[in-house]
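Question (not urgent): is this output format expected?
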Amino acid sequence: MSLRVGVCGLGIMGGGFAANLVKNGFHVTGYDPSAARARKFKSAGGAVAKSNAEVARKSDVVITSVATAAVLDDVVQGKTGLLAGVKKGLIVLEASTLGFDEKERNRAALAKKGAVMLDTPVSGAGKQAAAGEISIMISGPKSAYNKAKPVFPGFSMVQYYVGPFGDSSKLKFLINMLISAHGAVFAEAVTLARASGVDLKLFQEVLKPSAGNSRVIEYRGPLMVDGEYADPKVKTADLTIMMKDNDLIENYAKSYNVPVPVFLASMTTTFAARAQGYGSEDPGVITRIYEQMAGIPRTKKKAPATRRKAAKK
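Got this back:
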């Protein structure tokens, strides 16, 4: 591929983006302060950079995928950030879920150096990112979008150009608003099913072709039915990340004076789950809170005998 691509942030999402771009024939340079993530990216065929500035120097298009606004500030404006290696014409695809102000200040900083930032949040969890099955919404200058257009199919399944910078984040917030509500009501349904003696596997089977199903239930539902939220092989995201996103959505709604009572109600059990130490587990862990309130908490599954013996040693 003629366009050289860089990825800053090789975590669950960014790592998936980078690996898929490599598979699809792009030359990809990536950076992450985590040595383990860098090694995983290298084993997938990527070129590991020593800094974000090096990623900027070696790329035509750079994807940033980070967890917080502070990290994005450092990735773009830090001592060894993108600005330290930026060249005129560089296009930055900002794929994180962050507030409007955080993205805007970094867009403006890049613009002073002749680089363009596109707001490119994605919809989908870690599994979808790894499989290249996410959808992506792009907003910002149409000319920059057209230049970067060949890159998007390299790590996403569906792409939408939606207009001026920031409009894609609004769409992302609306989608995540529904994800939160869907997850909460499914947690309630799972708990009611257990309390009333409905077989959870049968519930899943009957629900799948029904009008009550959703994509959220399809990818997060199995964890909530099985009661397994910490296994990195099945976890879709961290509860604390979802809570951070929900704070952004609440502020978005407040800024337009729009009431969102159902969405706000869906957030209640997330605070209880975090208080009980489940912040690093999948957001589906809110099911535990509903089960506790209903008086039917699950007993932990016993580890196989071989694992118990190893633990004693």
